[in-house]
Amino acid sequence: MVDKTQFHNNFQEGAKAMIKHLIAATFILCALYLVQPANADTPACTFLRIQPDARFTGMGGAGSALADGAIATFYNPAGITGVDRTSFHANYYKWLPGLGLNDMYYDHLSGVINLNLLGFSDLGCVGMGVTRLS
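Below the sequence we write its predicted structure tokens.
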């Protein structure tokens, strides 16, 4: 025969454990509901997606492996090591003109100078790039 007090104590411990599990499950479900992935249709920080070169923009932004010349300062600064000439790149255009924002501009200026061509042997290249959104 089962002792009623022992049965009652076991039942209370089991009920307490079940309540703890339900509280934990509720907390986890609420946390999962609050931490949802970002909506892909909502633009955020779109200015970070501007690319200064039409060639690499047309390739979906895959410019890091192919960047050579002055534009390498934007996509892959290590790409200037293979530059065998001096080159410059300039870009200036209105940003978001279709939204009626005629006072927003994007500027990009970059240049690479091969110091070997200037008589400095074994020094390689020096490059600099400046991007401005105004």
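The two ends are 85 Å apart (CA to CA).
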